[in-house]
Amino acid sequence: MKLLSFDSHASYRIRVQGQLDPSWSDRLEGLHICPAEPESLPPVMILEGELPDQAALIGVLNTLYDLHLTLLSVDCTNAV
Fold it and tell me: Suppose 20 and one of 10, 16, 45, 78 were both cysteines; which one would form an S-S bond, judging by CB atoms 3.0 to 4.6 Å apart?
């Protein structure tokens, strides 16, 4: 993985506890939204995709906070 800076593209995988409809993808920078396990209780959702910079990542995290979803993990999967 190359060195990551605050203004570089990167791919992320974010896990949250709670329900999140895939229609929220547009409001979450186009991240793909799917359940971690369809029948898990409590439900866990995975958001994956590329973000242009860390400001976009913070915007996504703030939106998840506003939706009262519990953040479980944020992983940088690939610096682009």
Answer: 45
